[in-house]
Structures are given as structure tokens and as C-alpha cells.
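Hi there,

I know you've been waiting on this one. I reran it after we fixed the sequence typo, so this is the corrected version. Both the input and the resulting structure follow.
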Amino acid sequence: MDLVLSVVSQIDALFTLFIFIGAVAGLFVGAIPGLSVTMATALLVSITYTWSVKNALAVILGVFVSGVYAGAVSAILINIPGAPSSVVTTLDGYPMARKGEAALALWAATFHSFVGTVFGFLVLMFVAKPVTSFALTFSAMDYFLLALFGLTTIGTLTAKNYIKGGICALLGLLLSMIGIDPFSGGVRLTFGWFDLQGGIPLIAALIGLFGFSEVLDQVARGAMTAIAAEAGKMRYSFREMARFLPLSIRSSIIGVFIGALPGAGGPVASIIAYDSARKSVKNPSRPFGEGAVEGVVASEAANNACIGGALIPMLTLAVPGDAVTAVILAAFYVHGLQPGPLLFVRTPELFSIVLAGGFVASVAMLILGMTVVPRLSRIVLVPKRILMPLVTVLCVIGTYAVNSSMFDVGLMFCFGLAGFLMRRRGYPAAPLVLGLVLGEMMDSNLRRAINMALAGDNFFLSLFGRPTSVVLSILVIFSVLAAVPGVKERAFAVFRRRGGAEKS
């Protein structure tokens, strides 16, 4: 009850206004193919650098919630997902639009995105504290293994080739070592550049990897020729949507669970939820893949429920659930906050701000989805000759504004070019960002754990003798092995052979 009152107390007119501003921005960013929520969040980190934490989080959460949902708009209208998590939405959303049911598809996406988002934040409200209480018992080695687990999962799940994901994660760790060693005070890997003694500027890296690289990628791809479908007049029937609530809740449960797994995220959740709906729904409105509204419901409820799920490990354990929460994690560090178990001890009001922002952003998303989205069919195809220069200017301004440094701007361009080349070669940026963000935490905790173990009687037992250390070590091993080609197939083959032998 105290938590509920604390959440309500955070909601005021200014807070709500900032959330709506962020939600409007997220709506347009998410609906326009080529612009990602991650990119928008990275830009906002720089813009909100001097703001209060409450106002900064309000805008960021508004963009996050609305942007994830808005990916469904272009997915339904032009068969191009505005976000990776909306890829599955195209399977039934666009066929519905081609059949003249774009308005119904958009309303289903809007309503059940709202359901999924609210469900995710409710789970976050009641699960985060117990997780934190458990995490307070962690040792330095536990924290190192936990960060390593998050790094291995996102490094393998965000790349088609696990080796490429691992390389990017290791590169991020290497980049995090640049600067002054906090233990010895020595200078590491700066190569004589004085500007690098403070480490890699996180804002410059984020904007370059997710912002300017997007510009280069879109320019290289050329003009978009897809034709938008007319949304038509939207009919808001809550009773019609209510009959899909059981499916929506099931998909939301899947979304929260998948979102809480570091590295999985919305795309994985929507795929699993869609597959589950296809198997469980006996009499769909149409066959799945041919314009079934159930397909839109399952996909959108799941990928929006991922938001609350992804925030659970980020807030409680400082392990981001996806690329966007990795950027939000960076935003916390930029504002001088340390996510993890101690966050609830040192700044308990911050958790209430996040929850309040999530619930208000859900309402803002629903309102905007009912009023603005039907008119977006003419906007989703903004000419790139207008859009890309504008994004480039924002990238430069956002980077320069943090430290008033042209060196940071040059570094942003370098990261942008690197991000573009990585995309072309299939190397994901998310593991690199996580390595950059988590590298210092891993370095300090590992060295602290080793120093403590050297002072003990048994070095190995001091490091891995705790039950949590054993469990986390096993999780890391399984995470790495699961990504190795052929391991899954061999494991399933063994289980099938054993199952067949038992039956016979």
C-alpha cells in the first residue's frame, strides 16, 4: 500500500506533461521506419543531461513505451516494422490493412499494447523488491558473474552468429578499460590522447552507434518505395477488444518473462507469443498469416509487456534486458545513479518515479493511439532527404551539448561509421554497448573478488564457494553453450533418444 501511495505521489502536472511530450516523440520515432526507439533514447540522454532525474525519466519512459507500440503503425500500414519487436505484427497486420481492416488492426494493436504495458509494470511493481532483497546478499564475485551472464546472453541472442556477438561484447569490454585505472591510478589505452583519460564518453558512443549509424544505413539503402495503406476511420469498441483479453494476458505473461531474460527482448517475446497463440486459439477470425486479429493481439501484447520485464533486471541487478534498457542504464550513470540493489536503499523514490512514469506513459500511449495514430498514414513516409539531415544535426548537437567538446563529436562520427560497418557485416551494436556500460563494474568486482580470495585460506572456494556463485557460473556456461551451433540440436537429440528408449 505504501508503494502505491508513493507511486501516486510522484504524479503531478509537470511530470505528466513531460511524459506526454516523450510519448508524442516516441510515437513519431517508432512509426517512421528507419528511426529506432534506441536511437531516440540515446539522443534524449544527452538532451536531458542537465535536467532533474524525475523529468528526464519522464521523457525517456514516454518515448520508450510509446515508441515500442508505434512500431506496429508502419508494420500494419506499409508492411515495414518500425521496430524489430513489430516484425511479427506484419504477418497479420498488413494483410488486415490490405483487406480494408487497417483501422481494426491499429485499434487491436493500441488496446492490447496498453494491456501488455500495464501488466508489465504491475509485475515490475511487485517483483522488483523481492529480487532486490535477494541480490543484497551478493558478493563481489556474484556481481561479476551476473554482469558476465547478462553480457553473454545479449551477446549471443542479438546476433545471427554467436561469434560476432561475442566479439562485439569483448570489444565493448576493451573500450571500457580506456582511461585512468581506478585501482592503480595509471593511464590505460589512451595512446597519448588526453581527452580519453576520463574514458570513452558514453553519450558519444551511444549516439554514434544508434543514431548516426542509422543515418548512414538509411542513406545507403536508398529511397523507400512502399505504399502506405489508408487507416480509415477507427471504431473504438472496447467490448470487441475485451474478448481477446485472455489471449492478451497469456501473451503478456510470455512478454514479461522473456523481457526479464537479459538479451531476449521484444522480438523473441512476440515470436514465442505468436506461436503460442497459433497453437492455442482454436477458432481464429482468419487463418494466422492471412489477417487474423489474434496475431496482432498476441504480438503487440507480448512486445509491450517486455518493457516492464526488461526493467526488472536493469533496476534490481544493473543488467539491461534489451538495447533500450542498456541506453536507460547509461542514462542512470550519466545522472550519477547506480542501478542495482543499492538503488532501492539510497534512492527509493526513484523506483516510484519509474513505476509512475510507466503507468502514465501507458495511458498517454492509449490516448495518442486513439487520436493521432489514425492520421499517421500520411506521415510514416517522410522523405529521407528531409529526415536524415535533421537526425544528423540532432546527433551533433546532442553530443556536443554534454561536454562542449568537438572531440566528443568526432568520436561520435567514428562510432557512427563503426556502427554502420558493423550492421553491414552482421555485427550487433547492443553487445558492444553493454560491454562498454558493464565493463567497469566487471573489472572492479573481479579484481576485488580476487584480492579477497588471495587473503583467504582457499582461493577457489573463496571465489566460487557460495551457492549463488555456483548457480551464476552454471548459467554463464549454459548461456555460452546454448549459442554454440549444434549444441542445442545435439542436446535435443539426446533427450529424444532417451525418451524413445524409456517408452520402448
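Quick highlight: The beta strands are 179-180, 187-188.

Best,
R. S.
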